[in-house]
Amino acid sequence: MKIYTKFGDGGETMLFDGTRVAKDHLRIDTYGTVDELNSLLGLAVVDCRHEKLRGILGALQDELFDLGADLATPVDSELTKRSGRVGEKHIAFLEQVIDEVTAELPALKRFILPGGGVTAARLHVARTVCRRAERLLVELMRQEDFGEPPHQPLIYLNRLSDLLFTLARWANKLDGVVDVEWRQQGVR
After folding, report:
1. DSSP-assigned letter for residue 185
2. What is the pLDDT of residue 79?
3. Burial of 138 (0-12, 13-18, 19+ CB in 10 A)
4. Is residue 182 pLDDT above 70, yes or no?
5. CA 75 to CA 144: how far, in whole Å?
6. How far apart are CA 51 and CA 39, in angstroms?
7. Which distant-in-sequence residues (6+ apart) come within 8 Å of 22 by Cβ?
8. Could you tell me which residues come within 8 angstroms of residue 62 by beta carbon, excluding any fewer than 6 positions away?
9. pLDDT(54) > 90
10. CB-based contacts of 123: which residues, under 8 Å, 6+ apart?
11. Quick check: pTM over 0.85?
């Protein structure tokens, strides 16, 4: 099987239901940003020395692939009934991991700047891309029908950015690195 199809040579691509849209369509930008986020998690795994953290990141990559497929399938498509949607069980997993990891961390006393160790810094970058995906999804939801609330993909991305922040702090702790605290100008 060839990797190239030539179907996109004219600047269009296909959603999962066969609908053709421009490659700069907001839906494509949204799930493309989710794909970018998934790639950043893959980069975070590369040098991560902690098996449990690598396992969590791997599970998140699987879920992000599901989310991308979800976003590539319009709600009114016949495929919607057959394809899995990101839902409450995915969100519950994120919340469970946040709670478990937070219990191992010192309480926040200041704002945390992105940085510390390599894995933490990569997770902070992933967090910012997650927030961008969330903003794009909000805009897409204004333009297209996403069915009745609650909108699980939006809740999922919101919770995922919280988890990525928490995992970045945890990565620093596991690596023996102190979080980088924000120090307001003139305040020490």
Report:
1. T
2. 57
3. middle
4. yes
5. 9
6. 19
7. 11, 12, 13, 28
8. none
9. yes
10. 44, 164, 165, 167, 168, 171
11. yes
